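Here is the promised in-class demo. Please do not try to memorize the tokens; focus on the logic of going from shape to residues.
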């Protein structure tokens, strides 16, 4: 309505005057206003409807405004809005039980946080106290959050201005065949050489100094590079051999995104600690956490765990997680995501890759796909440089939006990351738009 659009314009003005935005130079921002959301759709400040193929920040796995989750928040708000973390609360207890039912292996103890970054902070703290060691290994091409330890674990340019050289984090190269650092030509070669590189990194850093190895089970923001199963098993074995705590960051890859409850299931690997957020309640209320294996939980049986938060297991957040997970089970949402990847998104993207010279590679699983855009398929020169944007990328994104699609973009990539609940028709409609928008990238060849 005209009134809503007017309210949106007012909100925009206030935003530009008073709101300080994440990761941005504040002076040059022109943020999109969102006035309404439902299912796979959002309505912008002018009242235009767009298909949300970003799931916001890849978190609305259950779609926008799922009625049973909205209702659970409403009921919980009427009942108890908040309790301190030291007290028992039914919403928290039930959420922990439900999460533990889905986590792999014996990861049955849940420490709740407010989001993904603090989940990783606490996982690293637990690992350091458990092992008595300080160093942590993590991948280049990764994202682990914006707080001090998490941003230093991160292997993307957002770390650079936050890295004072004292984080104790050492970065290594993970497997990424399309842009292989190991001159590999097959996945098996890439896996084996990446493992040798990691083994050598551990040896040269001194295994007895390394508390933890942190990895996204499937790296998300940095490009959805699915690691070979042999690599993930090799990492598990390497950690076991040296007493290194394996932390799987499932903040983006978890809760159905990859077509499984957790992405480590693809590789049949059980980490010692697993961090989650986003999809646990689709971000309707801020929530994250660490799932803890018994041998690490035991470290803190007698000795107090030195960490906590006022909102650990907040009732509104955990009640929304309970409703989310119950709806995901009842509606077969994880199975739907897996089928969408196999039958709709994967096949369509492979056709798109054939048709467009600007597409270097498509890769993914479930509703977790990356389209790698290049200036030249031979040299693989990216359409935007690492860490940056380009007029070409900006034009592709603008072409998507003009045609009614909100994409997720990072450097030279467009990610196809709709809600796990997106319908087959909606997926086709979004991919039609992407297909047409990529003509813009081809034209610049
Ligand atoms: N870990 C991964 C893999 C993520 O993708 C993100 C967010 O995008 C985070 C951690 C940080 O989560 P949050 O933004 O909730 O702190």
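The designed amino acids, position by position:
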């Amino acid at each position: 309505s005209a009134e809503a659009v007017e309210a949106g314009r007012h909100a925009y003005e206030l935003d530009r005057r008073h709101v300080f935005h994440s990761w941005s130079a504040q002076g040059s921002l022109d943020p999109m206003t969102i006035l309404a959301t439902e299912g796979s759709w959002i309505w912008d400040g002018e009242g235009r409807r767009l298909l949300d193929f970003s799931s916001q920040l890849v978190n609305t796995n259950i779609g926008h405004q799922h009625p049973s989750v909205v209702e659970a928040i409403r009921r919980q708000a009427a009942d108890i809005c908040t309790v301190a973390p030291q007290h028992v609360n039914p919403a928290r207890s039930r959420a922990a039980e439900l999460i533990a039912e889905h986590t792999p292996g014996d990861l049955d103890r849940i420490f709740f946080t407010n989001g993904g970054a603090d989940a990783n902070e606490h996982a690293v703290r637990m690992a350091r106290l458990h092992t008595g060691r300080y160093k942590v290994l993590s991948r280049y091409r990764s994202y682990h959050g914006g707080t001090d330890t998490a941003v230093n674990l991160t292997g993307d340019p957002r770390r650079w201005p936050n890295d004072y050289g004292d984080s104790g984090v050492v970065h290594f190269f993970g497997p990424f065949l399309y842009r292989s650092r190991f001159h590999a030509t097959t996945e098996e070669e890439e896996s084996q050489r990446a493992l040798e590189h990691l083994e050598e990194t551990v040896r040269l850093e001194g295994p007895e100094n390394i508390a933890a190895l942190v990895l996204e089970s499937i790296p998300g923001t940095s490009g959805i590079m699915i690691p070979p199963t042999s690599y993930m098993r090799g990492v598990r074995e390497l950690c076991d051999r040296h007493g290194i705590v394996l932390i799987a960051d499932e903040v983006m890859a978890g809760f159905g995104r990859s077509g499984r409850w957790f992405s480590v299931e693809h590789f049949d690997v059980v980490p010692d600690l697993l961090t989650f957020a986003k999809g646990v309640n689709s971000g309707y209320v801020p929530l994250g956490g660490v799932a803890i294996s018994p041998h690490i939980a035991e470290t803190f049986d007698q000795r107090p765990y030195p960490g906590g938060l006022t909102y650990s297991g907040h009732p509104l957040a955990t009640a929304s997680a309970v409703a989310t997970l119950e709806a995901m089970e009842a509606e077969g949402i994880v199975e739907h995501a897996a089928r969408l990847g196999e039958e709709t998104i994967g096949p369509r993207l492979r056709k798109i890759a054939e048709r467009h010279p600007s597409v270097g590679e498509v890769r993914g699983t479930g509703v977790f796909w990356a389209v790698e855009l290049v200036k030249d398929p031979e040299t693989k020169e990216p359409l935007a440089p690492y860490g940056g944007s380009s007029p070409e990328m900006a034009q592709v994104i603008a072409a998507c939006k003009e045609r009614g699609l909100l994409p997720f973009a990072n450097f030279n990539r467009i990610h196809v990351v709709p809600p796990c609940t997106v319908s087959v028709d909606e997926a086709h409609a979004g991919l039609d738009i992407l297909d047409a928008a990529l003509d813009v990238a081809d034209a610049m060849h």
